[in-house]
Specification:
45% of the residues lie in helices and 15% in strands. By secondary structure, it is of the alpha/beta class. It has one domain: Rossmann fold, CATH 3.40.50. A seven-stranded parallel β-sheet has the order 3-2-1-4-5-6-7, sandwiched between helices. It is globular. Belongs to the short-chain dehydrogenases/reductases (SDR) family. Keywords: Oxidoreductase.
Length: 257
């Protein structure tokens, strides 16, 4: 029997892997046998996540503290991963931030900060991993976590810098896919909608957001834990070998309307 999504022996790097969707996707890949490198700024959190994943799934893990907006730190982090494992097969660029305020009140610092983390950090991680690991190996899977708000605007939570940055991630994905296809590196993006997490549950369960879900989302609800995992597994696996430059919304149909 063929196991289409077996990732045993592969090394997966997940940024923003201290809480929320990053941890969920890291666990999903660990469940398929991948070794996991958890990257984030908060050392204690990623060390706890790495230990939890190792204990639960029996895979080798590594916690690497890194500010993805700092080119030097990114290069050092990638060097450390390659020194330990000798390879990087999968990169999930999940780290991000979000400034919510009316556009007319957004400061330059907020706008630049959003671009530096969501777009600049995504590029810096992809550049370092491709140059130091994937191009030499002639193999790689890069998954950029954009957002449904990288595809459309919104009236619910004003966040124009976030829209700009995630829209940049969407087309950065296409650009990198076009350049790196010759190295057998597939670059795709996932555009999540709103998902439940400990941080979002109270907001999403509010009367306003529940009405918004019924009005704006064809499935009439927000995403549950685990519903992003299969998209990440598919795009990480050798089975997706002929899929690159794809922008995959996982949003309950929000961007279909």
């Amino acid at each position: 029997m063929k196991s289409y999504f077996d990732l045993k022996g592969q090394v997966a790097v997940v940024t923003g892997c201290s809480t929320g969707l990053g941890v969920q996707m890291a666990k999903a890949l660990a469940n398929q046998g991948a070794k996991i490198v958890a990257i984030a700024r908060r050392k204690e959190l990623i060390e706890a996540v790495a230990k939890e994943i190792a204990d639960e799934f029996g895979v080798e893990t590594l916690a690497v503290q890194c500010d993805i907006t700092n080119t030097e730190r990114v290069n050092e982090a990638v060097d450390a991963i390659v020194a330990k494992f000798g390879r990087i097969d999968i990169l999930i660029n999940n780290a991000g931030t979000g400034a919510v305020a009316p556009a007319e009140d957004i400061t330059d610092d907020q706008f630049n900060g959003e671009l530096n983390v969501d777009l600049g950090g995504t590029f810096k991680m992809a550049r370092a991993v491709a140059k130091k690991a994937m191009i030499p190996a002639k193999y790689g899977r890069i998954i950029n976590i954009a957002s449904m708000y990288g595809l459309v605007g919104n009236k619910v939570a004003p966040c124009s810098p976030y829209h700009a940055a995630k829209g940049g991630v969407v087309n950065l994905t296409r650009g990198l896919a076009s350049e790196w296809g010759k190295y057998n590196i597939n670059v795709n993006a996932i555009c999540p909608g709103y998902f439940y997490s400990p941080l979002t549950k109270e907001t999403l369960d509010s009367d306003f957001f529940q009405q918004n879900a019924r009005t704006m989302i064809p499935l009439s609800r927000y995403g549950n834990e685990g519903e992003l995992d299969t998209a990440a597994i598919f795009l990480s696996s050798p089975a997706s070998g002929y899929v690159t430059g794809v922008i995959l919304p996982v949003d309950g149909g929000y961007t279909a309307m």
